[in-house]
């Protein structure tokens, strides 16, 4: 039996969906513990591509229970659209395969309206997806949120909407210059969602802890990346939830003593979407080249991703914050054509050499990357199934990542398909 947490080790978009899909084979439960539909996990099975925003990536495996836990914020309209698309393609034949915790907070239309109005206004832009994620977490912390258990009770839901909407409309009209929302229209639309979704109501904590006691493997699926964590990321250019491994315990209601492994997902280079510091960003032909080869466009928004060389300073930070026991390196194949490859090993800041990631954005903005350059392998790795068959330059690159970050590489991905994956160690074995 083993309980494994999957987290992003960079700024998101690292390929967590594929890794979760691979590891789901060994798990009984797959649990999404934070974030909302601001995350997009892209899965490729055979020639079929699936993009999921809320439902755990394990849903493509028959017989696996997928749980949306209390740390998530859920847009019921998006959730139903995902359910319908999956069912139309022959997945989710048994609705008991999917559970939503009653404490999961609901993204309401006013959350989306506020989010979009703020981001399009004259003030500082964070680079949000405009999906209402931040405002929903604000209401959660402010103890005025509406939860999934409320949504499926029409009278309770209507009462809470009537309590909340006057304040939201005041903010929309008087401060943000937006039209007010209709109370009755929201109640009618969302009550219908609740009627369809009530069959999925359950308790993540009860189910997960029961699985642990029964010796059933559990996989915890994170969204976004460690450097977007609300407490430990590049604040304020972060998401609104705890994206690191500790967030799995609070976000799913399980004690930390039951966690066996933490696997961090990192691209062989780095990308970032939205605003915020990015020390190794490449605003040149090489950056464009990485974006083109890697198809670096957001699964949720379609926005082009910023690209750069692998940042070992930031990766060490993620390893420490999460207590990672292994690294999964994705998109190794994107580097196949390059003549030379760089890794940032430290930062130079006003004459000082920094090897630890600075939390002060004023300092970080002044940091310049210190690079170590490596010979490229210029060889196709997409069909290789053993690390021993990799070009020596590629093996040396992976070895250097391990040395710089103090964490072993346990998986290497050389393409989007399931079969384009090399597992060096299975985190569900020997725990």
UniProtKB/TrEMBL annotation:
Binding site for substrate: 299-305
Keyword Nucleotide-binding belongs to the record: yes
A Pfam short name: Adenylsucc_synt
Main location: cytoplasm
EC number: 6.3.4.4
Biological process according to GO: 'de novo' AMP biosynthetic process; IMP metabolic process
Subunit note: Homodimer.
Function recorded in the entry: Plays an important role in the de novo pathway of purine nucleotide biosynthesis. Catalyzes the first committed step in the biosynthesis of AMP from IMP.
Protein family: Belongs to the adenylosuccinate synthetase family.
Stated name of the protein: Adenylosuccinate synthetase
Source lineage: Bacteria, Pseudomonadati, Thermodesulfobacteriota, Desulfuromonadia, Desulfuromonadales
Gene: purA
């Amino acid at each position: 039996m083993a309980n494994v947490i999957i987290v992003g080790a960079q700024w998101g978009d690292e390929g967590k969906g594929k890794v979760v899909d691979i590891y789901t084979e060994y798990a009984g439960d797959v649990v999404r513990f934070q974030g909302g539909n601001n995350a997009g996990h892209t899965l490729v099975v055979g020639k079929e591509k699936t993009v999921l925003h809320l439902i755990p990536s394990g849903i493509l495996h028959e017989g696996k229970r997928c749980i949306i836990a209390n740390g998530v914020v859920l847009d019921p309209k998006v959730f139903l659209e995902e359910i319908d698309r999956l069912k139309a393609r022959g997945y989710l034949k048994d609705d008991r395969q999917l559970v939503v915790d009653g404490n999961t907070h609901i993204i309401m239309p006013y959350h989306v309206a506020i989010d979009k109005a703020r981001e399009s206004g004259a003030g500082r832009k964070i680079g949000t997806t405009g999906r209402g994620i931040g405002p929903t977490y604000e209401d959660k912390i402010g103890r005025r949120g509406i939860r999934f258990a409320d949504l499926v009770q029409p009278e309770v839901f209507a009462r809470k909407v009537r309590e909340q909407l006057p304040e939201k409309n005041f903010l929309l009209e008087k401060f943000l210059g937006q039209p007010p929302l209709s109370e009755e229209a929201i109640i009618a639309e969302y009550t219908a969602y609740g009627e369809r979704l009530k069959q999925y109501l359950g308790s993540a904590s009860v189910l997960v802890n029961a699985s642990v006691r029964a010796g059933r493997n559990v996989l915890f699926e994170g969204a976004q990346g460690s450097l977007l964590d609300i407490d430990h990321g590049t604040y304020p250019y972060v998401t609104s939830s705890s994206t690191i491994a500790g967030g799995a315990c609070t976000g799913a209601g399980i004690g930390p003593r039951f966690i066996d492994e933490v696997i961090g997902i990192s691209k062989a280079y780095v990308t970032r979407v939205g605003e915020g510091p990015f020390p190794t960003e490449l605003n040149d032909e090489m950056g464009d080249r990485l974006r083109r080869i890697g198809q670096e466009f957001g699964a949720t928004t379609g926005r082009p991703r910023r690209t750069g060389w692998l940042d070992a300073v930031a990766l060490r930070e993620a390893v420490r914050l999460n207590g990672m026991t292994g690294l999964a390196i994705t998109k190794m194949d994107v580097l196949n054509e390059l003549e030379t490859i760089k890794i940032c090993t430290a930062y130079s800041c006003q004459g000082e050499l920094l090897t630890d990631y600075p939390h002060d954005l004023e300092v970080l903005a002044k940091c310049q990357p210190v690079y170590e350059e490596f010979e490229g392998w210029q060889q196709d790795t997409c069909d290789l199934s053993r690390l021993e068959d990799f070009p020596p330059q590629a093996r040396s690159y992976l070895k250097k990542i391990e040395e710089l970050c103090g964490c072993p590489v346990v998986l290497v991905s050389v393409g989007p398909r399931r079969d384009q994956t090399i597992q060096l160690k299975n985190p569900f074995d020997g725990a």
